[in-house]
Amino acid sequence: MAESTQPAGDDKRPVNWINDDKWVHEQFESYPICKLYPNLRVKVEEVLVRWLAKFDKKIIHRMFKANKIFKEFNESAPFLQHILDLVESYTGPKLTLFDLCSGLGFVGCFLSEILDPEKVGNIYLIDKMFPMHGCESTNTQINIDHIRKYEWPIEIQCRKRNIKKTREQREITTLLESRPGPVILCAVHLCGTLSLQAINMYNSSNKYICLLLKPCCLPGKVHVYQKQEYVIGPHKFTARQLYKEPKWRGKFQFWNDNLMQCIAIDNKNLQDIPVSLSKVHPQNKFIFAARSAEDETEQSGKDWEMKIFSNCTKYQKPVTNPPNTQENSKLDA
Ligand SMILES: C[S@@+](CC[C@H](N)C(=O)[O-])C[C@H]1O[C@@H](n2cnc3c(N)ncnc32)[C@H](O)[C@@H]1O
User: Fold this and answer.
1) Whole-angstrom Cα distance, residue 219 to residue 166?
2) What's the gap in Å between 78 CA and the centre of ligand 1?
3) Which tens digits make up the pLDDT trace of 1-28?
């Protein structure tokens, strides 16, 4: 990161300064985004350089801590590119983007800067770790000062929602239904059964124009001891089957193949896009689903109920999917 733009020569000034744009450019050099999405890389770099000029030091420190931001952009690149293409060719009432389990919301923030505000009206970051509405974040919550203290070209709002809770899912449904046009459901790095929750959301309404899901870690092995079963509509599988698969790669493939079968529509694909630098756990699976005009009229999947439950009496506490009610504005960060 640039420390000074002053010429070297004064002892008190850092000598090895570099420009923000050069520094940002160099950070991406070892990442696959350079070869896979060179044009997107340029756009991301431009936005990151703008952020370095726009945000205060504390926010920059938080966002650029350990340079993780570059890894995140590298790994979400396939979805960023997909959304750019989708919005470019889109005509119709204004779109909305849900960045589900957003964390700091790099995906939503970048897209706010780059998408056409004539086509995309709002961006919602949804995460259970946001602070309560109007409150400062605690040490364990996600600090959202970069959202609420700054203006964004496309408005960004944060919603504190636990997507595993039925009532909070209903609030998301109410928000979904209040949108003027279709909603893009983008979910990057969803751990364990959060991926099932995202799929269940997508199945439940044809207002979701597409689902972009990048699953992250597998459900814990404790699910085997709990005899967990995952059921979405007619598709059912168990943690035992998952953990019977050899090696991490076998399990991750099984998990993703089964997630695919939980998606109620036909127009879907699971792509292996080699973005990961990890040799041990290369999480390179990207799920793309989009409703065709036929799916939209028939609303396939609307009646697909989700159940995640334990067959072990000690642990029996089923999670079922929700119907619809009002939004609880207290939870809006
Ligand atoms: C691995 S992070 C991914 C963050 C971001 N999408 C990214 O790729 O950088 C997972 C996020 O899911 C959120 N999360 C975990 N459980 C959740 C739940 N039940 N409901 C909503 N958000 C949840 C966490 O707070 C965290 O921000």
Assistant:
1) 20
2) 19
3) 544 444 444 555 554 556 889 999 999 9
What is the distance in A from the centroid of ligand 1 to the CA of 99?
Answer: 10
Does some domain include residue 63? yes
Q: What letter would DSSP give residue 174?
A: H
pTM of the model: 0.90
In angstroms, the first-to-last Cα distance of the chain is 30
In a domain, 166, yes or no: yes
Secondary structure percentages of the chain, helix, strand, coil, to 5: 40, 20, 40
Per-residue model confidence as pLDDT tens digits over 246-280: 999 999 999 999 999 999 999 999 999 999 999 99
Q: Containing domain of residue 36, as a range?
A: 20-331
Number of folded domains that form the chain: 1
CATH code, 178:
3.40.50.150
**If you average pLDDT over residues 296-306, what whole number do you get?**
78
Lookup: tokens for 140 = 């364990």
What would the DSSP string read from start to end of 196-258? HHHHHHHHH-TTEEEEEEEE-SPPPTHHHHTTEEEEETTEEEEHHHHHHSSHHHHHHHHHHHH
Q: Which residues line ligand 1 (CB under 6 A)?
A: 72, 101-103, 127-129, 161-164, 188-189, 191, 194, 216
Distance (Å) from CA 253 to ligand 1 centroid: 21
Which of 101, 201, 216 maximizes ligand 1 atoms within 8 Å of its Cβ, making it the mutation to test the pocket?
101
User: Does residue 5 belong to any structural domain of this protein?
Assistant: no
